[in-house]
Amino acid sequence: MKHKTIPCLLALLTLVGLALPNRAFAQLPVKPLASQQILLRSDNPQLAKNKKLVYDMWREFLEGGHLEVAEKYFTETYMQHNPNAATGRKALVAFFSKFTKPQPISDTIKAPVVAILAEGNLVMISFAQEKSDPVDKTKKYTTTWFDMFRIENGKIAEHWDSAEKMKPN
């Protein structure tokens, strides 16, 4: 009896193994964890303040295109780790002035915020992004973009993200 069971189990495991890769590695869509207002909360008042600083900078400076508020949000010696942008507040403004125009400032970040996390003097914000499937251009998939900021004396002093170097136009 035992000898007949082993081939059946092997056959069953093979079938399961063939079926699992598609399901085990199926990509789940990236979605926000909570409302933006809930994501800004923290039991620690300083962490909540740091989150709000990054949140407001994102709405006013990055999405709103109001480059005149750079001094409000960034230290003069702001350090940039994105390989496509130079370091310093002046360089940051020069970089964004190439493709940003002022527009009305929204009460919330327009991009789909997944999470806003704060620990010590660091704030990380992540976003859902929809991309074209490189194998089948008729399909889309979602992925996550991360930006992290270091806060110093109430301003953003340093930035990291997952950007890769781009070819100049």
UniProtKB/TrEMBL annotation:
Gene3D superfamilies recorded: 3.10.450.50
InterPro entries, A to Z: Cyclase_SnoaL-like, NTF2-like_dom_sf, SnoaL-like
Signal is among the record's keywords: yes
Keyword annotations from UniProtKB, A to Z: Signal
Signal peptide limits: 1-26
Domain annotation SnoaL-like: ranges: 58-159
Domain of life according to the entry: Bacteria
Name of this chain's protein: SnoaL-like domain-containing protein
Organism from which the protein derives: Spirosoma arboris
